[in-house]
Amino acid sequence: MDKIVNITLLGVFLTFVNPLIAQVSQVEIRKESKTGYRLYKDGQPYYIKGAGAKSQFGLLAKSGANSIRVWSTNNEAFLDSAQHYDMTVCLGLYVRPERTGMDYNDDYAVKGQIEQLKTEILKYKDHPALLIWGIGNEVDLRYSNFKVWETIEELAQFIKKVDPNHPTMTVIAGVDPSKLYMIKKHCPSIDILGVNVYGSIENAGLNIRRYNWEKPYIVTEWGVNGPFEAKTTSWKAKIEPPNGIKAKQRRRRYEDLIYPDMEKCFGSYCFLWGQKQESTATWHGMFLPNGKPTEAVDVMQYCWTGKWPGSRAPSIQDISIEGKNWQKEHRLAPSTSTTLTIEYEKYNNQDIEINYRLFPEAFTNKIGGDRQESPEEISFQITKKSDNGITFTSPSKKGAYRIFAYIKNDKEQYSVANLPFLVE
Amino acid sequence: MKLRENIAFWFIGISFIGCQSMKEISLYGSSESQSGYDSFEPKIIFTDSQQDGVWGMKNTPCKTIHYDTIHSFYGKDHLHIQWKQTSDCKYLGMGFKWGNYKGKNLLPIMKDCAIEMMIRVDEGKFTKIPMFFGLTDYSGKQCMSKINILDIEGGFIDTTWRKVLIPLPSFNHEKKEVNLANIKELRLEFQREGDIHIDRIRIVPHDHNFKKTNTRFTKIFKEHPIQIGQGREYWWGVNSLYSTSFSFNDESIHERIYANISEKDWKEFGFGVYKWHRADISEIASSSAISFILDAKEMPKIQTTLVAYTGPKRRIQKTLNTSNYIQINDSSYQICIPLKSFAEFENFHWNTLKEIRFKIIEGSQFEMGDFKIIEFRGNPKKPNQWIRL
User: B292 to chain A nearest CA, in Å?
Assistant: First the structure.
């Protein structure tokens, strides 16, 4: 009789509980050679084709991505939405960086943060979309107190204890021997190194090996060179390459640097599948503030699938004022008639539309992707418009400005370029 | 029986005397601080709308605050605060007049008291609320603190009234140079989105058992010579799994590496000056040089880079020339690189020295080691003359 009861209970358990357990992905790291590793999800090799994303998940999945990266646990909907589109999530645990005022010598603040994040770990550890824990993002950026690594390790240890299904990762800004030493020494429970690399992606794989990192890594943010790496004008305005130039850079970096490193690299998350103000409104974002995609989206689809989308955005290759291109400085007199020209690829588009917008320069001292305010648009006079440019009247007020050219097709796929100029 | 009675009598008697002579122990630390709390009068910050003044009650599209009479914890009513930050809201906050704005001296209670409040929400369960607490002095300076999960009763906020403490030592008053002897008010500032009920805010004794240390991760050097490059774990660029360019000489006391560089192999290595901490050599930098021994048949061409953790110029470089080499014998040289000979010596933060790296521009086989920072008081352009002296 007891036996029958036991079997019945087991049946009930398997019927109701097992499907819930089965939904949790089993993610593991396997060592496949002396120095090589591979990521496995539910027993199958899993290469991350991902994006740092908070929206447009449908288009992301359609473009060939299989994972998103988010920087904090403040929105459960991201995980649910990712799961809906059959994508996984690299879930960030927001460990406060020292540069935001966090004092890692203050036990009260440190222990409080750890306990708070432990509740987040317990809350999300069984979410079916969870792939990897990202413990902290760029906590090393301009830091001075290395005790932050103790917090990272304590959280990683806690994850190891309560969640054996998902690997741990911490994400640093750039690749640096001191940081790799600190993580290796103080964070033995970290399984994967996440690196946010923009200009420094060129030597990231080499440096990870030179700096003695033995475990696997993920390129957790990459894209075009960031504003912090850009050339500036003499009035400190950052010079942003046109979308067309940036698109080519993205493709080369994926094809030549990320994808070939199968030995240690588990894949990547491009930055940024969305929009944000970082020096300009168009620097990193693959979408515009109006939510429309730029040609960077097409490039990522090509990287992930090897195929261009049926409808491609046009592509601005160059932008000039008075014949001087985007790499040069531009100084204008107030209220002067000025010629701006753009060069672009139309691709297979029949109809395209070009618009121009003017903004004051958005100077900022923010770093590391910290939140920046967007400037207010300024109205200005266009006196002549052609297929590849305009003649406009420069502002009457002296100061630093930035003019944007937007080109779009009938599907509202965009390419953008801008030029900073000084009215003096 | 009598003996037993006697023992019992004496036991009870001694116990009684013992109890009488027991020292009274404060639940909240020293008796001195207890008196600080006792003599602090404006203990009540908020009880209800009739008792205590509040500013910032004007409702905006981003924030509504009203007195809610339903299900209060204490008094006639309590505060119900709802907010949602948008770009239209320049300031999302409110304040408590706390003793009708009378200047309050918090110094005697600062170490062992806390602001206590009761908080609940209408639905859900939260471990953090995006709100901040500010103590403002009469010069307008303000120090901040926030809710810490460690001081939420039960570890979360939900629909039941829960006690939340903000320990006074958790305010960053030193950093913000707030005059704690003359505090005007308590402010609440809000971020993002929230919807909470608050009731009975008061000062209570509180044992805040957390330390603030002063760990700096900086090693100060004031004397020569400084042996550097000790400990292989602080080196990079020497990794036999990927490159045969550099390998450690196992027989040397001080770290030495052997170079055997082929055309497409690694050509750089480096090490943390002091365990990857900040090395502060600012007091001796102007009279210092980097020194090492190099054994080679042909002199390699080497570029040295110094890296600092901070500063306007975080990397400075120098390519070695003949003046940096002092021949010891047929195949051995002492290398001397005065720090002053690095371009932009003045713009380098010598108190945050991080790393020394070497790039081999020309040359393939040599050995180098015994890295030191030595005293150097000669002409930075002619270091070999100083060494010969």
Answer: 22
* Residue of A222, A221, A226, A143 whose CA lies nearest to A183: A143
- Contact of A76 with chain B, judged by CB distance below 8 Å, is answered with no
Residue type, B376: F
Which chain A positions have a beta carbon within 8 Å of B355's beta carbon? Answer: 177-178
Question: pTM of the full predicted structure?
Answer: 0.89
CA dihedral A130, A131, A136, A140 (to 10 degrees): -170
Tokens describing residue A209: 């090996």
CA distance B335 to A171: 39
Cβ–Cβ of B236/A109 closer than 8 Å? no
Beta-carbon contacts of residue B114 (< 8 Å; ≥ 6 apart): B151, B165, B166, B167, B168, B203, B204, B205, B206, B208
Q: How confident is the model at residue B364 (pLDDT cuts 50, 70, 90)?
A: confident
Which residue range(s) make up the domain with B333? 218-384
- Give the minimum alpha-carbon distance from A264 to chain B in angstroms, rounded to a whole number: 13
Same domain, B198 and B271: no
> For the domain that residue B344 is a member of, what is the CATH number?
2.60.120.430
Residue B272: its chain A contacts at CB < 8 A?
177-178, 181
Residue of A nearest to B148 (CA): A112
Q: How far is B299 from chain A (nearest CA, A)?
A: 25
Going from N- to C-terminal start, the domains of chain A cover 23-305, 315-423
CATH topology of domain A315-423: Immunoglobulin-like (2.60.40)
User: Is B107 found in the same domain as B35?
Assistant: yes
> Domain total for chain B?
2
Same domain for B110 and B76, yes or no, is yes
- Selecting from B212, B213, B276 the residue whose C-beta is nearest the C-beta of A181 gives B276
Return the percentage of chain A with pLDDT > 90, whole number.
87
Instruction: Give B79-93 as a DSSP string.
Output: EEEEEE--TT-S--E
CATH superfamily placement of domain A23-305: Glycosidases (3.20.20.80)
The answer to whether B90 faces chain A, any CB pair under 8 Å, is no
In a domain, B166, yes or no: yes
Give residue-wise pLDDT tens across range B244-259: 999 999 888 889 999 9
Q: d(Cα A312, Cα A348) in Å, to the nearest integer?
A: 7
From B170, B205, B240, the end of a domain falls on B205
- B315 in the same domain as B168: no
Same domain assignment for residues B190 and B262: no
Asked if the Cβ–Cβ distance from B210 to A106 is below 8 Å, we say: yes
Based on the fold, state whether residues B178 and B236 are members of the same structural domain: no
Cα distance from A143 to chain B (closest Cα, Å)?
9
Chain B residues with CB under 8 Å of A212 CB are: 236, 239
Give per-residue pLDDT as tens, A358-397: 999 987 666 555 566 678 899 999 999 999 999 999 999 9
For testing the chain A interface, which of B125, B171, B210 should be mutated: the one with the most A CBs within 10 Å?
A: B210
Whether A75 contacts chain B with CB within 8 A: no
Mean pLDDT, consecutive 10-residue stretches, chain A (424 aa), reads 47 44 85 96 98 95 98 94 97 97 96 98 97 98 96 98 98 98 98 97 97 98 92 94 96 98 98 89 91 97 97 97 96 97 95 95 66 80 95 96 96 96 96
Residue A77 three-state SS = helix
